Amino acid sequence: MSIAEHLPKQYDPRDAQERWYPVWVDRGYFRADPSRDATPYTIVIPPPNVTGALHLGHALNNTLQDVLIRWRRMQGFDTLWMPGTDHAGIATQAVVEKRLFTEERKTRHDIGREALVQRIWAWKDEYEARILGQLRLMGCSCDWSRTRFTLDEGCSRAVRHTFFNLFQAGKIFRGKRLVNWDTQLRTAVADDEIEYKDTEGLLWTIRYPVTGSESEALLVSTTRPETMLGDTAVAVHPEDDRYQHLIGKTVTLPLLGREIPVIADAILVDPKFGTGCVKVTPAHDPNDYQTGLRHHLPQINLLNPDGTFNENAGPYAGLDRREVRKRVVADLEAQGLLVKTEPYTNRVGYSDRSKTVIEPYLSDQWFVRMGDDPDGSPGFAQQAMDAVTSGRVRIHPERYAKSYLDWLGEKRDWCISRQLWWGHQIPIWYFDGELDALEAALSGAEGVSWAPAEGGGWLVCALDDQLIQGHSDRLGLRRDPDVLDTWFSSALWPHSTLGWPEPTPELKKYYPTSVLSTARDIITLWVARMVIFGQFNMGDVPFRDVYIHSVIQDGDGKRMSKTAGNGIDPVDIIETYGADALRFTLASSATETQDLRMPVERVTDDQGRIATRKAPGQPIEFVPADLAKDLPKEQFVNTSKKFEEGRTFPNKFWNAARFALINLEGYTPGPVSPDELAVEDRWILSLLRRVSAESTADLEHFRFADLARGLRDFTWNEFCDWYVEFIKARLRDDETKAVAQRVLATVLDGLCRLLHPVMPFVTESVWQAMGSVAKARGLPEPTEAAESVCIAPWPSYPDSWNDPEAEFDVAQWQEKVAALRNLRAERDVPRDAKIEPILIAQGRAAEALARGASSIRALVGAGSVSVVPSADRPAESAVAVLADAEIVLPLAGLIDPKAEIAKLSKSRADLEKQLGGVRSKLGNASFVARAPAEVVQQQRARLAELEAQLAAVSSRLAELGG
RNA sequence: GGGCGAUUAGCUCAGCGGCGAGAGCGCCUGCCUUACACGCAGGACGUCGGGGGUUCGAAUCCCUCAUCGCCCA
């Protein structure tokens, strides 16, 4: 008994995962080496945010990145896959604040900035460890020695330098702007962080009396009546005859009694909508804000940061916005100024993070200028657009370039300040004194810069806290409490992780990175901004290719999410099916479509109880179905049948390898000359060369599904189903054994390498097992195999292996074997009956069949196979008529003439139908005239074939008297 | 409202101008044939969302309608 025979019949994914991953890490295969003289290939991981554990979308993205990295590593590149996580400012602070509130009933203001930040760091440590652990379980070959975090020292330094440089370059400004305000989190949120939902509400119509008139009034409609307190005008259309006479007059604002002008504005007002009058609240509506700027209207801010109304609301000051609405409506009604109330559906913005209604809010914010410079030279947005239109950055699939360009084309300034405690604090100090004092203290200081503030005073920016600490108290500097938008630090990721602003060897070698793989929803948030900051800091784009992967949905086309209860934890899949299965399935699913459906099922035990767990990573508990109903949906453990396919394939490969290893008993390495090869050897090598070339091309073009499918089909449908069967007899014969073993070892070796990027664990297991039996292998000359398939060279076989003759031969054998098996099955021939089929063929087909007679015999379980140019057909025989051959299977005693006649008649009808189609095509003069010659020729050949088949079938029928 | 995408076998998806539309899963019939029952052999199942058009030829290109998903206003 050899070692090979002790390999388990079923592949054990867990064993392989636990065995090989630590070996790879210990041997340093994943480490990049800037001093190595090899072309770099770099991917920076899209840093998962530390809010929660990874889901299937991350699993997909990271699988694909690992496939690319492993492939390039095998190609000999100096590969760097930079891992790390993102602090996700608002999201992480929100989950920690939520937990603080549910567990202790406290808000962040109760415990203070320092304590909250400390708690968030603890959360971060926990989730970072979980996330990185998930990546390791998946087999990701990141360079862990370089793991980074967007708030770590190096990234913080990069943020600081970037901010400082932007400040000096005049790209940063502070201003009062209408922002999207989250009243619960008390912060501005970006446009992208708002989710709009159609909401059933009411439309109130309010009467604004014309000042000094007893009877005349303007009627305005609004979905937010409380904002009337901040109205500073009423607008009408300049050409609206109804109100011409009132333009320039004033109306009296109800409740507050303020006189506000009636203005004419053609942009804001649609005279056909409602009454044709619009209230203008510049501080609380984006359109009104613009209108206010056009007409120089005052901006009256009504809100406090927490959503209560301020002193500008007069008697309503101190009340919550919802309460103000109630009272305003009631008071208007009491005064007879409420004209009507009707149901109305409008789109309301909700914060992605807190799920509360977003308020447009006028506040001081920091911005990065995106537009072009006053002299017309391209600004940040334009530069980022140019990077893509010029082809310096290529986006795949190409269609996504459009959304990138459309969004950047708006050139909207980027609001980078967040009123949070978790993040990079803005390095700005306010100085209220005179310029002289500032200059006296700071002039000549490196890394300190200042500029006049919008509302008077000065803004001081420092590269380092220490540079300013000494002056801070003396000058009475106040630091801005805000932090930067998370995407500010993420935008630096491709160079900050490589050591920028230091001129490190890493930065020199690995920037620009090679590929960025990410999801389409952050093309604008992240990809565009990386291009902007990459070009600003590094003078070059951050990556050459951007690959956008599909979004995974559940079986109903719903986006997966924890709260919807339809999410799948990749770790659950790994536990049930194995990491290779997860990876193979995801890679197979990675087509060019934008969505990918993954039918989701609950995990149940054999008693129908439902698997649940308190949180990701916690142990599973099975709960009876009726009890499970009441549990939060995010506690269910989900799975998907989709991964079955991924489980069977590694097992199939494992068993093919077992077969090979068992049969490599007595293997001796040695050269094989081409004339020693059997037809089937030449055939499988020809196919191996092709699948290898195709796999390389698939990887070059991000065709992951094609890659997975091509390799699976070759492995299963050609190598296992045919080649292994063809050589079984040769392996039992000492005369022929050696060559068959050498070819077998070569093909298995190639498969290990080709499959390794997708299925690293099973291929390493096989590779190591092979190492003990056939360490030296390959054709025509064997060479010593690498110590791990991770670092084995990616295959590239000589074109001379391409062998159309061998492929023709084997195709002949396969077709005839299939036909014979079909005859056997249809006629219920017992499995152990030794049939003696006759293959009637001429010419090239006959030669091919003669060469393969013994293979065919073995594969159909025949006693003998004869190949003849013509033959009398025994009366009791089953017959199949193929395009270039007739197969006769004598079956004395097993043939029912009636059934034979029926089958042949069906076959004849079929042929006649097909003939009809071909004849009508060829009978069409314009087809013959206009179609390409080879297409016409093809049809003619087919006509001849079909006619011959029909003749054979008819003659057989005649013999049977049918 | 604008844009992107999808609609092909029961399910998930390939195919994107030229033989007779494919795969995996599922289904049916035989098989534990000393690599594999996570398997082997055989089989059934599709007016390629509807309607127009272009073409010698359309699942594939164009128009239109319908349904669904996503993004942006």
From TrEMBL:
Residues 681-836 form the Methionyl/Valyl/Leucyl/Isoleucyl-tRNA synthetase anticodon-binding domain. One of its GO terms (cellular component) is cytosol. Pfam families: Anticodon_1, tRNA-synt_1, Val_tRNA-synt_C. It comes from the Bacteria. GO terms for molecular function: aminoacyl-tRNA deacylase activity; ATP binding; valine-tRNA ligase activity. ATP binds at residue 562. Its EC number is 6.1.1.9. It is found in: Cytoplasm. Keywords: Aminoacyl-tRNA synthetase, ATP-binding, Coiled coil, Cytoplasm, Ligase, Nucleotide-binding, Protein biosynthesis. It catalyses: tRNA(Val) + L-valine + ATP = L-valyl-tRNA(Val) + AMP + diphosphate. Residues 899-961 form the Valyl-tRNA synthetase tRNA-binding arm domain. GO terms for biological process: valyl-tRNA aminoacylation. Monomer. Belongs to the class-I aminoacyl-tRNA synthetase family. ValS type 1 subfamily. The C-terminal coiled-coil domain is crucial for aminoacylation activity. This is Valine--tRNA ligase.
